[in-house]
Structures are given as structure tokens and as C-alpha cells.
Design brief:
112 residues; 3 helices; transmembrane helix; F0F1-type ATP synthase assembly protein I; transmembrane; membrane
Length: 112
């Protein structure tokens, strides 16, 4: 529920008011770092988990190659999960165009 005093202060431009025109993209500026860490975690976690599973199967069956297949499967699975969560695709703005890489000189979005 909104505070009526804060809403009234924002309408009159008083100090301490927040700008309500900020979109969800303005909330966090470290989204690229967080997405990179998530991709890294998925891939490394997949390699560790599936390598341990492969190591256990190698121990049970007396082979030596399943641990390597498990590591490869974990890496591919981690990349697949990060891709399905949208962490490896380029960011796009609302109308479907690619987001600009830097602000333009005139302050407008001139990305093509």
C-alpha cells in the first residue's frame, strides 16, 4: 500500500521523493555480473555433480571413461540451463531491438 504523504510529496516535487518514472531496468546496474556468475555456477556445478556421478559409476563398473563423459555432460547441461533461463542471450529493449551499447550524444536512443 502506498503512503499518501510520500505520494503527495512526489507530486509536488519535494525533497526525499522518489522518481516514479524509473523502470525495472534502472533498479540494478550489475545484471551482467549476476548473469555471468549464474552461468559460471551452472556450468561448474554441472561439471562437479556429473563428474561425481561418473566417478561413482566408474568405481562400480570398473571403467575409467565415464567420469570424463560425466564432466562433458555436466558442462553441456549447465550451458543449456543457462541458455534456457535467458542468461546467455543478448539483452533487448521493449520494442525488440538490441539495447544500445552506450548512451548517444543527444540523449536519445539511436540504436538500430
Amino acid at each position: 500500500m502506498r503512503d499518501r504523504k510520500k505520494a503527495a510529496g512526489a507530486a509536488h516535487g519535494k525533497r526525499g521523493s522518489t522518481d516514479s518514472t524509473q523502470g525495472p531496468a534502472d533498479v540494478s546496474t550489475d545484471g551482467g555480473y549476476n548473469a555471468g556468475m549464474a552461468v559460471f555456477s551452472y556450468i561448474i556445478g554441472g561439471i562437479i555433480v556429473w563428474s561425481l556421478i561418473g566417478w561413482g559409476l566408474d568405481y562400480l563398473w570398473g571403467t575409467r571413461w565415464i567420469v570424463l563423459a560425466g564432466a562433458l555432460l555436466g558442462a553441456v547441461g549447465g550451458f543449456y540451463l543457462s541458455h534456457m533461463h535467458g542468461l546467455t542471450s543478448s539483452r533487448k529493449i521493449a520494442d525488440g531491438r538490441h539495447a544500445p551499447s552506450a548512451p548517444s550524444q543527444d540523449g536519445k536512443d539511436n540504436a538500430k
